[in-house]
Design brief:
The complex is a heterodimer of chains A (about 110) and B (about 120). Helix content of chain A is about 0%, strand content about 55%. With about 110 residues, chain A is mainly β. By secondary structure, chain B is mostly beta strands. The chains are: A mainly beta (about 110), B mainly beta (about 120). The interface between A and B is medium-sized, with 26 and 31 residues.
Amino acid sequence: AQTVTQSQPEMSVQEAETVTLSCTYDTSESDYYLFWYKQPPSRQMILVIRQEAYKQQNATENRFSVNFQKAAKSFSLKISDSQLGDAAMYFCASGHQGAQKLVFGQGTRLTINP
Amino acid sequence: EAGVTQFPSHSVIEKGQTVTLRCDPISGHDNLYWYRRVMGKEIKFLLHFVKESKQDESGMPNNRFLAERTGGTYSTLKVQPAELEDSGVYFCASSQAGGSASTDTQYFGPGTRLTVL
């Protein structure tokens, strides 16, 4: 069975600073995928970034990047130049080939201080 | 292109009543998923449709929950009778037909917040 753990229930950062959200996972699958989703207050959840486990290169989407450490089963999200609009609940999730369901972590609430 | 929509956005019912949640996936998406987040806990998978067929319903908590997807378009999730522990946010997501060779990105709806009193 897959498990995903986010050990930081809440994080805060000053606007324009960099913040890293932690995520660890456990899986017995060899071919799996990792995701970070963002849910702003009262808005729907959107995909921030996706990483295929077979890819060694860390995924990057503009100000968002991941540090994927496969051996350590770690998948942290780095947000650079934080903006007020980045304030949201962030969920780490995993899925594996052949099984479409996602397994989520508990979420990290990120606050951006102006 | 319209995203995943869910109705209602909020529902408050009394214990023992019935509630039906609706999800309209992105047009053309064969895969439809239901998830639930109980307050303060992680989002948990309930079930997965491929078109009108239930592909995986391993996350359904008990037989008080019934999901349908007639015609392979929208889906409903009925809770009958509702219990206090059913309170939470119910999310629907959809993805394109990726088959077993890939894990397609799932696009989520805004969720339905269900409160059972």
